[in-house]
Amino acid sequence: MLAKKSSKPRHGYSNTNSSSNASGDNSDVSDLEFKDCYLAYESYAAVAKRNNQFVNIRWSDLQRAQSTTEVKKLLAALSIKRHITRDGEALELAALELCFEFLTFDELQRTAQVCTALHNIITTSKILLTGLYSRTWRNEMLPRVYIALPYRDQLQLCTARRSDTIYELSTRGAVSVLSNGNCCVLNNSMLRNFDKGAVDSIRGTKRLPDLACARALHKSIMYFEASLKGCGSVGLVSISDVATRNAYGFGSGEHVGWKGISYAYHGNDGDFVFNDGTKPYGGEWRAFGPSWGRVLTRPDYKNKDMCTVGCGLDANNRQIFFTLNGEMVGMAPVMALPGDYAAAVSLHAFGDQAVLNAGAAPFVFDIEAFCASP
């Protein structure tokens, strides 16, 4: 893209972007001249290649570079083929868009308020916000339907995901917040009567929020994942129903689906267990998917890896779905009753543990692609 320092005369944005400021605000951006923009891009290329000195480099060289961690993260922001110019805009504007990929979300928002020229770069870009989302909450680029969204919806995509990272839990187990924002719960509390076993219940204190990627597409889909070591049940419990809300969470030794209005995927046999509030204790059991997890006290237990179970609800059609280790298991055979639902996990044995992710970290299952599907 830029092979060497240009001999082109120095000029600012005001000479190349007629839509910047009709009221004579060209002085806002004239301080940043062509030479400065060129050096910014040259620095960008140097960082991407991790060279110790400036070299002649084109953007296409970066795509052919050796596969390194830094380059992979950078290329995750690529959604479509790069163009040197866009609608005849100045080269330095396109270079700035590349540089802006290093900014955080808050820095991007502040930069957009500097002047009209920078605001136009950020709000018309299709890769800045989607690339930022991908680098933070995914291991690959977003599906194209998100890249085609207008700036307002892309803004919703990022802001809503950030607000979803805090999800408080009710449980008597030991809770610790991991560095990525997920919550780890260990079933180790002695505040119980072991005559009925050592099952420990975990319940969200509030409604599981609609996914940011769903809200950006004007849908209402909620989802969470629980990575378990041991065995248990994962699902949703109603918090609109007082009896159900009190049946799960701190002090409860019930598996999800046994009581109240609740729906769960059980690991010991792979059954879907549910109760609509009128069924007897224990709920109704139906064959559903593969079993998962093991009871830690069994002598044949050898697999120490966690298995990740996901549970979601499409509120528009009240359809519950489950995933296992990043793969779709299927839709529940019954629809959820109307109301608000919280994430729920029950750990079966003393010493079992679960890591709950309500959006603080990337999901194992490609939930963005699922939400984008018809």
TrEMBL record:
Protein name: SPRY domain-containing proteins
Top-rank lineage group of the source organism: Eukaryota
Comp. bias intervals (Basic residues): 1-11
Domain SPRY: from-to ranges: 223-359
Protein's organism: Plasmopara halstedii (Downy mildew of sunflower)
Disordered: region residues: 1-28
UniProt xrefs under Pfam families: SPRY
Amino acid composition bias (Low complexity), ranges on this chain: 14-28
